[in-house]
Amino acid sequence: MNIFRLAGDTTHLFSILVLLLKIYATKSCSGISRKTQELYAIVFVARYLDLFTDFISVYNTFMKVVFIASSLAIFWCMRFHPMVRRGYDRDLDTFRHYFLVGASFALALILHEKFTVQEIFWAFSIYLEAVAILPQLVLLQRSGNVDNLTVRYVFFLGADRAFYILNWIYRYMTEPRFTRWIACASGVVQTALYADFFYYHFISWKNNSKPKLPA
User: Fold this and answer.
1) 23, 13 in Cβ contact below 8 A?
2) 175: which of 24, 64, 164, 213 is 20 to 30 A away, CA to CA?
3) Among residues 125, 164, 112, which one has the least CA distance to residue 43?
4) How far is CA 107 from CA 38, 45, 124, 127, 133, in A?
5) Can you tell me the distance from the alpha carbon of 6 to that of 8, in angstroms, rounded to the nearest whole number?
């Protein structure tokens, strides 16, 4: 554990709390991509297959449970809650996310660190997480105007990846046997996907105006 990983986990938790606050306060999921939430649910279930077989620490186990439970809960609300699902922007959330799932799994079969079931699914989850935000970013660009809670949610997700890049750099410099190159490369790609969003977020903050992304 180091300060960068702790900061990354904390900002990810903030993103979850912001999203849950939006759903609870507005009883709507308007502006949120259900397909991105489906991808995150797949990511965490695939990554933490070792939840009941490998114990590292109480903190590690707690975070695994939180990420799995929260992603499944958000997905359930968006798909089945009688009030929340009414706000779902079905006409805007049309990204074909199943291509991302197939491509990520195929890549995991080709590029992995160990050819075991657990490692294949770990690599798959890393590749899929790198692109899971794409449906959400596309939805935001199509809708144009974005509410503040949705902006905060995406911002904290992007900050999480930025902190994790610093975490991997720190671990590479301090741990002689640190070889998680898959996580490092995927994290760089994932952070790059947020570049456009961060730019317009900065512009709106600088001008003290409502966030708006170009269509």
Assistant:
1) no
2) 64
3) 125
4) 19, 18, 7, 8, 18
5) 5
Q: Output the six-digit token pair for 85.
A: 């699902």
pLDDT in tens, 111-145: 887 888 888 999 999 999 989 988 988 888 887 65
Among residues 152, 100, 124, 98, the alpha carbon closest in space to that of 46 is found at 124
Q: Look-up: residue for tokens 């490369």?
A: 185
SS (H, E, C) 93-125: CCCCCHHHHHHHHHHHHHCCCCCCHHHHHHHHH
Sequence length of the chain is: 215
Residue extents of the structural domains in the chain? 3-206
- Amino acid residing at 10: T
State pTM to two decimals: 0.85
Q: Which residues pair with 212 in a beta bridge?
A: 145
